[in-house]
Hints:
This protein is mainly beta. The chain has one domain: predicted glycosyltransferase like domains (Thrombin, subunit H, Beta Barrel). It is 15% helix and 47% strand. A hairpin with a 4-residue loop joins strand 5 (76-90) and strand 6. The longest helix is centred in the last third of the chain and has 12 residues, at 110-121. The protein is globular and about 40 Å long. The mean pLDDT is 83.
Amino acid sequence: MDSxxxxxxxxxxxxxxxxxxxxxxTQAVYPALMVDVSSxxxxxxxKTGLCPLQVGQAITxxxxxxxxDADEPSATVGLTRAGLIRWIAPAEAxxxxxxxxxxxxxxxxxxxxxxxxxxxxK
Length: 122
């Protein structure tokens, strides 16, 4: 997994937040925990028994990102993205860490947004 960091085009935003995934988010949906996110993909963890995934599998994810709004610091925006599982690795006891590449990139770069928000706050 660490070798993937060398191939990344942009910095990821570390953001632990609940999310959901499934073949189609209108049917069976599984809970997970987002670990980090960029405009091109994300990593998340899921419990072994609730993680019916394989490398190369297409899934849809629903997640939230901070809005970085000075007037409302806890505000988030909900997103849905389809993508492909690129890797799966054992994580903490009883869970897997999963790497997902989005089919279409986000219109923003979360780590850059966080850095700009931190600068504006000063």
